[in-house]
Amino acid sequence: MPITNEIVLRPRFKKELNHDHATVLKVFEETKTTNKTFKIVRVDDHIFIRLPTHKQHFWSPQLHLEINEVDQNTSMLHGLFGPNPTVWTMFMFLHFLVAGLFIAFGIWTYTNWTLSNPYGIQLGMMLLMVVIWVVLYVAGRFGRAKGKAEMHELYDFMNTTLSNNGLV
User: Which of 37, 59, 89, 117 is the most buried (most CB within 10 A)?
Assistant: First the structure.
């Protein structure tokens, strides 16, 4: 599974399958009952594959598959690796909070500058927001690196499931 862009925190891929999407979804639905290594959840045309709860850690990834019907005999599988949705939501909230504070301190800095008031503290807070953003980004990259082996396990499981059922 090559990742073409090293900046991406949530790698994506897609595969064309020579079977209708109902067949592919049925295969994963059946695998859910026989497989004990991974937790599989199906919601409509979406399949979520995770490690069992006792093997998960804070940075554990999940594989989100969406199977779309192209025509009667072809379907497109879209895959997205990402952290637990709760972790992802927390990271996005923190990014938006830092961005909002950066803008607020920027406005405050500009206001003090135009009024010829001291603005060093506000400028320092803007720089602190940039540092916090970089720390959040590095933490996200660390999390992706820590979960990379598990990403490969999920990807291999998906490929094995598809190939064992003659879908690839």
Answer: 59
